[in-house]
Amino acid sequence: MIYLSLFISAFLAATLLPFSSEVFLATLILSGKYNLLWLWIWVTLGNVTGSIINWMLGRYFTQLQCRISFFGQKEIDKARETFLRYGVWTLLLAWLPIVGDPLTFIAGVFRVPILLFTTLVLLGKGCRYFIVIYLVA
Predict the structure, then answer these.
(1) Do the Cβ atoms of 99 and 74 come closer than 8 Å?
(2) Among 24, 38, 68, 103, which is most buried by a count of CB atoms within 10 Å?
(3) Tell me: the pLDDT tens digits for 52-69?
(4) Which residues form the domain of 89?
């Protein structure tokens, strides 16, 4: 059950909600009760899944934009500028605060293939959580 809670925490952290999964992850690591590999797997999968939701929102943004506003125009413009300058490789930085979530959204808008998107986001976020676990443990 704790791994599912970690997944949900990481999922929420990857969406537009102001949420952080690192504090919860660090608490679990410091408790010494949980397998570090399983913590890494669940937190990474949760965060990547949240990013996939952002990609889907971006992919179908043209149909949704009249009804819902997910990001402010400032964040979208900055993410678009960064994405156009550096291309799909920016998705390796999807873990960054502030700009990461809009980047995953813009990747959907620009219709980055889902397999390429998922691979790059998984690599970036997986490395980030690996480093967090290494530093805390």
Answers:
(1) no
(2) 103
(3) 999 998 898 766 655 455
(4) 2-136
